Amino acid sequence: MSQPDFAPALERAITRAMAGITAITDLKRLSGGASQETWSFDGTGANGSTPLILRRAPYGKPVQRSATAVPLATEAKVIRLAEKAGVPVPPVLYVLQDTDDLGPGYIMGRVEGETIARKILRDAEFADARPKLARQCGRILAKIHGLDKTQVSDLTVVPPRAQFDQYRTIYDTYDYPHPVFEVAFKWLEQRLPETSELTLVHGDFRHGNLMIGPDGVRAVLDWELTHIGDPAEDLGWICVNSWRFGETHKVVGGFGDVVDLLAGYAEAGGRNMTAERVKFWEMFGTLKWGIMCMTMYQAFAGGTDRSVERAAIGRRSSETEIDLVNLLFPKVQP
Amino acid sequence: MMDQPSSLELVTAVREFIEKHAMPELQGRTAFHARVAANALAVVARELEQGPKANAEEYAHLKALLGQDGTLDELNRELCHRIRTNGVALDDPALANHLARTTLAKVAIDQPNYSGFQHSPHRPTK
User: Are B79 and A177 in contact (CB < 8 Å)?
Assistant: First the structure.
């Protein structure tokens, strides 16, 4: 396979920025969303090979990222802050400069491990890790929420009410009736937390963004949705049934229980967290994922992405509807 | 009256073609999208089989719940409006019952293997 056209520029940047690296090899695309590209490569030199990751704007062009995504340089800043606080993250080794001619982005160390939920939840090599993960996630989240938010100036502040209004508006725009979503909105509106303290939150703490090894969580990835919000938001999001990947009775990510998540959270200095606050954000997260499925379908309907995947995902919003029904009405009516 | 095959048979034939013949020839993103395509056709097949009954039941429940008539779309919009404007109590057992039954019928078509459906307390016990 031929090298992507930016490979020489990346090699120039990395050899200048990192001592001991004289060349790059094995540059390959890992994934790509609308808001970022992720590339894996090795930096080689006299001391051997260094496994690296490049995260940058698509095609190296600064783009209007989704309203909630932070700029890549901010993402790098938050990851460095998290690392200092003892949150497991991939080390950010270099933030791209304009002169690198690679667009906005950064280079980080490549952490080995697994992000695919079905393997983490079922494969034997993770059997010892699974019972420890909920508590570990709680500890990690407490550390994230304890970060000094004043160190990062350009994070969006999204209090619960603002986020509620945001999703209400998106849902209203699609003008398609979902009575279950209406009940969920009502339920949430009646319980909107009067949060006194807003903290830095990860914003997408779930399978896929957690690099896990047989020893537990090795790195928290994908910080592009980080913002200032209700810390319970992160704890509720990982409890959304969609992220349990079939292991529905293990509420936290399909691997653990809320009591362990809360115990880990308190252990690491997290304050005032309760199962009730987590439940609010589990309900909210489930509704959000349902509306996100509608949004992805809209990309198909509006013509910006005519893939069968974008069309079909619209029919997954009913998954969140049954989850909401199960949460809203836990007991069967006689 | 259309000739044979039925639309259900046609959709099933295309799904089987994708699964048995096209997918083994494909790789990477294209193979993934072929899998999604086959699953989408399975949704269509289930909707052809179960959709008419599910819609008829939803319609009958909505009319009873709302005490008015209209199209299925109109009645769903009316229910949404009432929920939003407090025209129906959230703890009304008739509302819970309607939403549970309707949603179960939807997911049975869309994603019958989904855990939230498989383990729903609202599923009738066999």
Answer: yes
Q: Establish whether the linkage from the previous residue to B112 is cis, with ω within 30° of 0.
A: no
* A159 touches A195 (CB < 8 A): yes
Three-state SS for A296? helix
Domain ranges of chain A: 23-109, 117-328
* Site of tokens 């362990």: A260
Instruction: In whole angstroms, give the CA distance from residue B64 to residue B101.
Output: 14
Of A186, A321, A328, the CB nearest to B106: A321
Fold classification of A117-328 is Aminoglycoside 3'-phosphotransferase; Chain: A, domain 2 (3.90.1200)
For residue B25, the one-letter residue type is E
pLDDT digits (tens, 9 = 90+) for B2-53: 999 999 999 999 999 999 999 999 998 899 999 999 999 999 999 999 999 9
DSSP string covering B64-110: HHHT----HHHHHHHHHHHHHTT-S-TT-HHHHHHHHHHHHHHHHHH
Which chain A positions have a beta carbon within 8 Å of B111's beta carbon?
A: 315-316, 318-319
Question: From the list B43, B95, B115, which residue is nearest A315 (CB)?
Answer: B43
The CATH classification number of A23-109 equals 3.30.200.20
The nearest CA of chain A is from the CA of B69 a distance in Å of 17
Tens of pLDDT, residue by residue over A147-172, are 999 999 889 999 999 999 999 999 99
What pTM, to 2 d.p., does this model score? 0.95
A282's CB contacts (< 8 A; 6+ apart) are A236, A237, A239, A240, A251, A327
Nearest to B116 among A179, A187, A319 (CB): A319
Report the 10 Å Cβ neighbour count for A291.
21
Give the separation between CA B89 and CA A183, rounded to whole angstroms.
Answer: 10
| Rounded distance between C-alpha atoms, residue B12 and residue B35, angstroms | 14
Residue B112: which residues within 8 A CB-CB, separation 6 or more?
B46
Helix axis angle for A160-174 and A179-191, nearest 10°, is: 160
Angstrom distance (rounded) from CA B95 to CA B62: 9
* Residues of chain A contacting residue B90, judged by C-beta atoms under 8 Å apart: 183, 186-187, 328
| Radius of gyration over every alpha carbon of chain A, rounded to an integer in angstroms | 21
Q: Does A329 touch chain B (CB under 8 A)?
A: yes
Q: Do B80 and A249 touch (CB under 8 A)?
A: no
